[in-house]
Structures are given as structure tokens and as C-alpha cells.
Specification:
The protein has eight helices and eleven strands.
């Protein structure tokens, strides 16, 4: 069997900027027919690789079992156009919708079998758009259920920028008041309630950014007939250990393998 492949891509978002990303393709032997796929959404201040390259590792693991995926940078993040100070949750949700639409039009993708995966704020975005894009399944990592929590985080972690009343500094980035005001308009748990597709919620036991209660709120809100909540013991927000990372990737690949490929087998390690 030929090796899996990776393709750099660019897509236009609705504001006219370029979003840049990577499509991971299964080996050609698995692509005699259209294949299912997953779109990844990175977290606040993240990028399409994410912490310790967990998105890359998960995308490659999916490709090995016959599932394509798209990782991309939101506008204002990573290698995409724009400045982070112009980002809002609304703009990232719109980017997510544009990315899913783009991915579904790629030759070789089965548009009816597309799943979503997101980390932290990306998990919130996945929950917010899942029903709108008619996703086949969803996996949420360390997901934000109530974006209003960002105001609490801002109060403790974000430093004011002298002379700029509507901007704060966080992780060497400018965060706008508009971002914080816009975020409170959304409630991912309520929006997830409208999505009936198989939903896996994975949350770290010791998340220092998103309270573990958010995982329970998402789980209780979900109306999916097939749903599961997993708490990774001892793990931090981005699962920064080989053992935590492996558990998250294995569970994610198994979930999509089962619900996009109708294949209950565990992934090869």
C-alpha cells in the first residue's frame, strides 16, 4: 500500500482573506472511492498544529485508517491572513463554516461523511457549527461550553496595553474588547443540544483553563443517542504527556472509525 500524503491548501473565507491549511489523505489504495473526513478547529491563540503537534499526530493516525482530514489556521492565526486583534468568535465560526464547505468540495471526499474535532475554543466552535454543517460525528477536546468564561480568564491572565483601552495583551497577542463582548453571545452547550450526531467529549481532569464542569454541561446538553464523556486522569488542558496524548488520539480515531467508516476496530498503535 502506498503511503498517506499531505497537501498544503489555501481557501478564501467570506471576508476575502486566505486561510491556509493541510489536508491529510489516506493511502491511494484506500481512496478507490470517496473517503470520509474530519475538519479540525484549533484553540484560542493556537494554530493548525496545536500543542506538541497533537493535531498533526491525530490527522496522520486518521489517514492510516482511511479517513482524510483538514487542519487550518483561523483568520489572524498561524499562517493565515489577518491580525489576531481583529478576531472574534463570530469570525472564527464563519471561518469554520467556510473550511467545512471547502473540504466537502475536494475531489475524493465523501461530503456526507464529514466529522468535526476541536480543542478548547475550537471544541466550542465545533459544538456551535455541528448542526449547521450537518456533521456526521463530533469529538470535543477540553471544550469551552460557555464562552463567557473567557472574560474570567481575561480578568486574571490578560494584561492591559498602555494607551489602548479596548485591547489587552495575552501570550504576546492583542485581544480586543470586541472579542470578549462577542464571545458572551454564544453558548456552545445550548447549540450542541440541536446536534444529534455521535458525540465524544474528552476533558482533562486537571484543566487549568476550562473547568471540568464544562464537559458535564456539554454531555448533558447533547441530544445525541450515541454520546460519551471521558475524563483523562491527571491531564492538563492540552494533554501534554505521551500517555495522555495517546489516549486522546486513540479514542478520537476509534470514534471516527466507528461513526464515519462503520468500523468498530481499534486503531493500530
Amino acid at each position: 500500500m502506498r503511503a498517506t500524503s499531505e497537501q498544503l491548501v489555501e481557501l478564501r473565507n467570506r471576508r476575502g482573506g486566505w486561510l491556509r491549511g493541510m489536508i491529510h489523505w489516506p493511502a491511494r489504495g484506500a481512496r478507490k472511492r470517496r473517503v470520509p473526513g474530519v475538519v479540525f478547529f484549533h484553540g484560542f491563540t493556537g494554530d493548525r498544529m496545536e500543542s506538541h503537534w497533537i493535531f498533526i499526530k491525530c490527522a496522520r493516525a486518521l489517514a492510516k485508517v482511511g479517513i482524510a482530514s483538514l487542519r487550518f489556521d483561523f483568520f489572524g492565526s498561524g499562517e493565515s491572513d489577518g491580525e489576531f486583534r481583529d478576531v472574534t468568535l463570530t469570525s472564527e465560526i464563519n471561518d469554520a463554516l467556510d473550511a467545512v464547505k471547502f473540504f466537502r468540495t475536494q475531489k475524493g471526499i465523501d461530503a456526507q461523511r464529514v466529522g468535526l474535532a476541536g480543542l478548547s475554543l475550537g471544541g466550542c466552535i465545533a459544538a456551535c457549527v455541528a448542526v449547521r454543517v450537518k456533521a456526521k460525528a463530533a469529538v470535543l477536546w477540553s471544550a469551552v461550553a460557555h464562552p463567557a468564561v473567557l472574560r474570567t480568564i481575561a480578568a486574571t491572565l490578560v494584561r492591559p496595553i498602555p494607551g489602548r483601552l479596548d485591547f489587552w495583551e495575552y501570550d504576546a497577542r492583542e485581544v480586543s474588547r470586541r472579542f470578549l463582548d462577542d464571545a458572551v453571545k454564544f453558548d456552545a452547550a445550548k447549540l450542541l443540544h440541536r446536534f444529534g450526531g455521535p458525540t465524544l467529549i474528552i476533558h482533562p481532569e486537571k484543566d487549568g483553563h476550562v473547568p471540568i464542569a464544562h464537559a458535564e454541561d456539554l454531555f448533558q446538553a447533547s441530544c445525541a443517542k450515541t454520546k460519551q464523556k471521558v475524563i483523562v486522569g491527571g491531564a492538563d488542558h492540552t494533554f501534554t504527556s505521551l500517555a495522555w496524548e495517546r489516549e486522546v488520539i486513540d479514542r478520537t480515531v476509534s470514534w471516527f472509525r466507528r461513526h464515519l467508516l462503520d468500523d468498530p476496530r481499534e486503531p493500530a498503535r
